[in-house]
Each structure stands twice: as structure tokens, then as C-alpha cells.
Amino acid sequence: DGGITQSPKYLFRKEGQNVTLSCEQNLNHDAMYWYRQDPGQGLRLIYYSQIVNDFQKGDIAEGYSVSREKKESFPLTVTSAQKNPTAFYLCASSITELSTNEKLFFGSGTQLSVL
Amino acid sequence: AQKVTQAQTEISVVEKEDVTLDCVYETRDTTYYLFWYKQPPSGELVFLIRRNSFDEQNEISGRYSWNFQKSTSSFNFTITASQVVDSAVYFCALSEPFMDSNYQLIWGAGTKLIIKP
Q1: % of chain A with per-residue pLDDT over 70
Q2: Phi, psi of A4 (to 5 degrees)
Q3: Which A residues in the span 77-106 are in contact with B, Cβ-Cβ below 8 Å?
Q4: Based on CB atoms within 10 Å of each CB, which residue in A82, A91, B28, B34 is the most buried?
Q5: Which has the minimum average pLDDT: A24-28, A67-71, B30-34?
Q6: What is the count of residue pairs from A and B with beta carbons less than 8 Å apart?
């Protein structure tokens, strides 16, 4: 079955530590996205990538970094500069870029907590 | 300002009741898109519907229906004869032009729907 796989499902970060969240898709989609979800709030865009080796900052990129070396993979690193990282992180993809208003396909998320 | 308001934080109904989830949006653009997504307890969001601003026809899909009214900037979602499996968080989102040919997606805060057996 095609879809988006996020791992791990739960992740704990120590003070000053960088952690990386994995996102893999086998839908052959060009565009991929990372969203942050906090309780009682809508999703906020962290980074997005419309094509391999290219990515753009979203609304809340500070303290995060990404790479897009392969079409299938879009890992997110939460750096020590992100002072409030506890949240639910969702990876998504779409067939093409945002300008075509494609629907998004989502992974099942990673819950990141600070120890 | 672009904004999506889902005023109902949580709704609880008994199975088989009808329930309407409200979504009110603000935009200055004449061309935009509206979406509804469902987030079950498993976590992943699932696409339900997309509507463009030029299509005000209401949509029905099984027990789900959507009422789009540009005059009141609303895109409400109704579940008829609710079932326990409908329990989830439902998000409304607005997509509108942003920086050249791109679009930005603005999300509402979500409405948690609890269907009691």
C-alpha cells in the first residue's frame, strides 16, 4: 500500500540535543511538508519542499532544519535552538506543489517530548 | 488578514444524532479553496473535501454534506446519523494565493467530535 511513513511514533529529547524525525513516502509525490500541531491549535507549516534538493521555510522554521536528497525522503531535525519543541509533528505530501491546490496526504505523526 | 475560525472546540453527541461543524473564514481574495480534513485518534489527517470559491454548490457524500455560503464566508460540515467511527478532530482549512503562483494553507484550530454509543 502506498503512503507516508513517519518514525518514530514517540521521541524524547534531552536539553541541548538535536533529534531527527523521519518521513518517507512511496506515493511518487513531488511536494513534501512538515507541520507542527499543538493542542487546540491549527497546523503550522515548518518547511516544505517542492522538488528534490530544494526546500523553503514555512511560518515557524526557526530551530528546525530539513533536507531533501531523495524524492521519497524528507527528514526534519529539531535543533537545540528550538526552545519549545514539545508537539505533534506531521509529515505530508502532495502530487505537485501548493499552487495547484492538491489535497495533502499525511503520515501518522511523531509525538516529540522534552525530558 | 487570513483566518479560519472553528468556534466549536468540542462537540459531544449521541450516536445517530445529526451534527454540524462550523467553519468561518476571512479572505480578501476572490480565488481560494476550502478544505475539510479528519484526524482520527491514530493521528494522520485524512482529506474529506476540497471546494473552490467559484463553486457554491452544496456537496453530499453518503452521510456527509457540506454547505458553502460565500455571503456569510462559511463552509459548514454536517454528519447525518452520526456513528462512533466519526469520532475525530475535524479541521477546516483555507488555501489562497501567496507570493507569485504559490498558495498558502491556513488551518482552523479544529473541532473535536465525540460520538457516544
Answers
A1: 97
A2: -115, 130
A3: 88, 90, 92, 97-99, 101, 103-106
A4: A91
A5: B30-34
A6: 55
